[in-house]
Specification:
The chain has a three-stranded parallel β-sheet. The mean pLDDT is 94. It has one domain: Barstar-like (Barnase, Chain D, 2-Layer Sandwich). It is globular, with a radius of gyration of 13 Å. 19% of the residues are buried. The protein contains four helices and three strands, in the order E-H-H-E-H-H-E.
Length: 102
């Protein structure tokens, strides 16, 4: 397996489970796994944007479900606020992508 390659996403919707996240490291590990990011994913918001724009470049209808954002500790939710902006920007740039929070 090439650890520098993206893992193809076959799930639809793409489910990002954040329910039991308690720290930023776990948060970024879940992001990496949900979206099939390569091992070189930099675990920061700029890297997330760069990788997402690679993943969703093709105009294929996709839905992302973010589950448990509000269940994370307040400090982690504050840290993850840019993630919500990234998902909003992603939907704007790629209209074939939709994001729901539950």
């Amino acid at each position: 397996m090439n650890r520098n390659a993206y893992t193809p996403i076959t799930a639809d919707p793409v489910l990002l489970r954040l329910n039991s996240c308690r720290d930023w490291g776990t948060l970024h590990q879940r992001i990496r796994k949900a979206f099939g990011f390569p091992d070189y994913y930099g675990e920061n918001w700029d890297a997330m944007w760069d990788c997402l724009t690679d993943v969703f470049l093709q105009p294929v209808q996709r839905h992302i479900v973010v589950e448990g954002f509000d269940a994370m500790p307040q400090g982690l939710r504050a840290y993850a606020a840019p993630m919500q902006e990234i998902f909003s920007d992603l939907q704007e740039k790629y209209p074939w992508v939709s994001v729901t929070y539950r």
